[in-house]
Amino acid sequence: MNVESPMDMLHCGRHRLDISFPRVMGVLNVTPDSFSDGGRHIAVDDALRHAEGMLAQGAAMVDVGGESTRPGASPVTPQQELDRVAPVIEVLVRELDALVSVDTSAPEVMTEAAALGAGMLNDVRALRREGALQAAARSGLPVCIMHMVGEPGDMQDSPYYDEDIEDAVSRFLAERIEACEAVGLQRDRLILDPGFGFGKTVEHNLRLLNRMDALQSLGLPLLAGMSRKSMIGKVLERPVEERLPGGLALATLAVERGARLLRVHDVGPTVDAANMTWAVLQEGLEP
Ligand code: YH5
Question: How far apart are CA 163 and CA 152, in angstroms?
Fold first, then answer.
């Protein structure tokens, strides 16, 4: 008999997301440098069409981010972030009834995003900002917590770990799970992310992917975000627009190592890679 595991379903506000197989989260950047500079209406319209395309290609959700985490990017205030992200969340919910994840570390943005109908929170700082744990707990939404040492501005200065990277990541995430539980954010609302490219060398990233299955012992769903990142650029010596084949190889391995969510820019090809990988992994398991 098949019994539904709480690990196989996320309760994302008015949406339920079946993660009993790997699902794809499409990246939607709404930072000023990411869309044509023709005024806010045009940017929102571009975002809507981009999201629509990703959902049509099989994305289970769209991850909306208004803060650039690129090293050297200028910091944004919560108000600036809200100005960018809120109109996009609103339109995706109203026009597409989309499952929207919001890539933010700001408690004000988390609270407003939940009120606007977002279904998930995604925080690269793992709720370490003042008030973020409480805001996330009150939202009632699932939260992806990611490993990162330092801040985007300085994280790539000289990444160093005095233990195996997978142990450092695992210990950090276990601590953050405890911090969440201490404020009443139950464990079954958490998704864990090793944070590829955040305060890590290429060697760290490769090893972390290879050992990602070690994180499965924490008993929570895993998300991997490697799409177009410099680990591909460095290994293959490819510019950002030529990283899709490398990204599909990484997505395939992430699924094999236990990832149930893949955060990517190229949705259609990744959905196929993930589904094909999953078909092989399931072979012989069910009658
Ligand atoms: C992530 O891994 N990443 S923003 C540099 C690139 C390409 C892409 C050109 N938000 C993650 O996507 N949230 C980001 O090289 C994230 N996990 C989660 N949960 C960085 C990004 C990127 C950076």
Answer: 22
